[in-house]
Design goal:
Layout: H1 2-41, E1 60-66, H2 73-81, E2 88-94, H3 101-106, E3 113-117, H4 127-138, E4 143-147, E5 151-153, H5 157-167, E6 172-176, H6 185-188, H7 193-199, E7 212-216, H8 217-224, H9 236-246, E8 250-254, E9 261-263, H10 267-281, H11 286-312, H12 315-339, H13 344-349, H14 351-370, E10 375-376, E11 379-380
Parallel strand pairs: 1-2, 1-4, 2-3, 6-8
Antiparallel strand pairs: 4-7, 5-9, 6-7, 10-11
Helix pairs in contact: 1-11, 1-12, 10-14, 11-12, 11-14
Length: 385
């Protein structure tokens, strides 16, 4: 009876598993070609000529919102202050922190950093959006560079961002950061947010780095009325980029070690960011969450078939599945080698575990939003209605 039951189960599940693996096998080369094209299109130029006459340069305001960031803010500000760009204004807003963030910002006043004390959060506003709006009101630069505290810039990075925006006559440029730390769990076990955003980068779903994006101030004020209309948007910068990309006024860059836009973010913080973003990316639809989970399951199917083939002694099946697994690890290894300073090979080996992590995160995001329990830096996240 057991043998009969096993035979029936095999007749049901094996075709499903093989079909899923076939779909996964067909997707791997498509992903590889897509990634290569995106990386080539978003590779920043190498600037070898002098910057030029300082009087011709646009002024830039670096705006940094900070909430309970006393442990990470010092390194961020010291990097910005070391910038080679001369026409620079630096404003840091303390978003009603519960630690010593305010005092830390004030300690940089002698270096030219302007301190702003954030107002209490109005109803219907998301915390970061309100902080960005307050920073915008105080900014004087022709361009505004919005930065997160976990972003790190090398001395010439701001200069390169502005030179790119000016030379390409665009209003907004966003820079996906390079991981310059390497060999950390926060790197190797990073959620796949940037990986997916690059794969699906398009005018309808532009990839944007919320931690490093630069925009012409007049464009933000006149065409978007600042952040007022986007007060409850989970990713206002994506909405802005989408509108500007339609008019060919937004570009994405993927930073390199030489370009000099890096970031350091703890693993737990990355997980919380993914939970905050994944359900909105799924358009607040449980059906879309299930569809994403199904797609992840297809990508996991080669490993399931590989294990099954090994235990059942199916040499041809396990060999084919193994080849598909290697193909996917190669694709992710290529991505990691481009985005990380170290650890690409080990990261590639972790690909199936990262898919499992992503599956858990997308389900957790949907569940937590349905329970209205998603928080960010101690505040409840209330999405736009």
């Amino acid at each position: 009876m057991r043998k009969i039951g096993y035979t029936i189960s095999s007749m049901i599940y094996e075709p499903i598993a093989y079909t899923a693996m076939g779909l996964a096998a067909s997707m791997a080369p498509i992903m590889a070609v897509r990634l290569r094209a995106i990386f080539r299109a978003t590779k920043p130029p190498k600037y070898t000529t002098p910057l030029g006459d300082e009087t011709d340069l646009p002024s830039v305001t670096v705006c940094i919102p900070a909430r309970n960031e006393q442990h990470a803010l010092t390194d961020c500000l010291e990097r910005v202050l070391a910038s080679t760009y001369q026409k620079l204004e630096i404003i840091v807003l303390d978003d009603v922190s519960g630690d010593d963030t305010s005092a830390l910002i004030k300690s940089f006043a002698s270096s030219g950093v302007r301190f702003i004390q954030g107002d209490p959060l109005p109803q219907e506003w998301l915390g970061k959006n309100h902080a960005l709006e307050e920073l915008l009101r105080e900014a004087n630069g022709t361009y505004i560079l919005f930065m997160d505290v976990d972003t790190r810039v090398e001395p010439q990075a701001i200069e390169r961002i502005i030179r790119y925006a000016v030379s390409h006559t665009i209003d907004m440029v966003s820079v996906l950061p390079f991981r310059n730390d390497g060999w950390r769990g926060s790197v190797l076990a990073s959620p796949l947010r940037f990986f997916w955003s690059l794969l699906f980068h398009s005018p309808t779903l532009p990839a944007v780095s919320s931690g490093s994006w630069c925009i012409r101030r007049s464009t933000l004020e006149t065409e978007f009325n600042g952040f007022t209309k986007l007060h409850a948007a989970i990713q206002p910068e994506v909405t802005i980029a989408r509108e500007l990309m339609k008019k060919q006024r937004y570009h994405l860059l993927v930073s390199t070690a030489e370009f000099g836009v890096n970031y350091e973010k703890k693993w737990r913080s990355q997980l919380l960011t993914s939970i905050r973003l994944l359900y909105p990316i799924a358009r607040y639809s449980i059906a879309n969450v299930l569809l994403i989970a199904f797609d992840i399951a297809i990508l996991l199917s080669p490993w399931i078939v590989l294990v099954y083939g090994i235990f059942q002694g199916l040499l041809i099946v396990s060999s084919i599945a193994g080849a598909v697994c290697v193909a996917y690890m190669t694709v992710y290894g290529y991505y990691a080698a481009t985005m990380w300073r170290k650890g690409a090979f080990l990261g590639a080996l972790l690909w199936p575990l990262l898919l499992l992590q992503e599956l858990v995160l997308v389900i957790a995001s949907g569940v937590q939003y349905k329970r209205k329990s998603v928080t960010w830096k101690g505040r409840l996240v209330r999405p736009a209605k």
